[in-house]
């Protein structure tokens, strides 16, 4: 669904900026955003925080204050937190990439750099896109169960000690897999049918760009409004290292590492509480896990001329 091009001069605009995202110069980033947008908006506000927990609260505040456009400035976790509040509302979401991977921005094609994304916002149209949901939690790129959430947890502690680097990311995978003791036994229910799996990793993808970058099947299904559900065939640490490393750090994966389920709705039962990774964040959740695609639930700003700033595309 597409509306008319947006007119910033008639819009109240609020930027929600996560100072903890990526490795950007926060002051220069904020100054550049303000210079590019403030003179052209009916009104402009910039909210900043270093706490991920503040993002939803700030977004709710911006909605309550009547801002027409609410822009998420940060990585995929920031985008997901803001989208979780805006989904189903009349407010329009803008995207400014400021994280490490920025899969959502790249998937939408709004621009991988701040300059390109600001250019998109200055000359944009409104498009309603599909999003993913697990329980009441919105996700934009992916959800995973099993070893991957523990890789993220391990990576955070390693980053705190040694700093962010690709080598630290690799090491976090090896450390997390070394601690793997038992795979999950689960039931996946799709269209009234049940399938049993014993696996160490379930990866539910909503980002076509991410799957393309991993070299995995399923991107076309995502563009058609589906989930690509990847279930690792490996059950033990050593054979799992290959596929987990690829998913964790963005290497090309192999289709024969996974079983693929394509659907827009499913339920996963593990029989117990699990740590769930979603767009780079982690939340403990109770089984069963009900996932669905919410159609046209989020209004976002894309280039007005219909051309993407990257190879990504809107859902």
Automatic annotation (TrEMBL):
Domain DAGKc: start-end pairs: 8-142
A GO molecular-function descriptor: ATP-dependent diacylglycerol kinase activity
Tagged with keyword Iron: no
Keywords on record: ATP-binding, Kinase, Nucleotide-binding, Transferase
One CC-aspect GO term: plasma membrane
Pfam families reported for this sequence: DAGK_cat, YegS_C
InterPro entries according to UniProt: ATP-NAD_kinase_N (IPR017438), Diacylglycerol_kinase_cat_dom (IPR001206), Lipid_Phosphate_FormReg (IPR050187), NAD/diacylglycerol_kinase_sf (IPR016064), YegS/DAGK_C (IPR045540)
Protein name according to UniProt: Diacylglycerol kinase
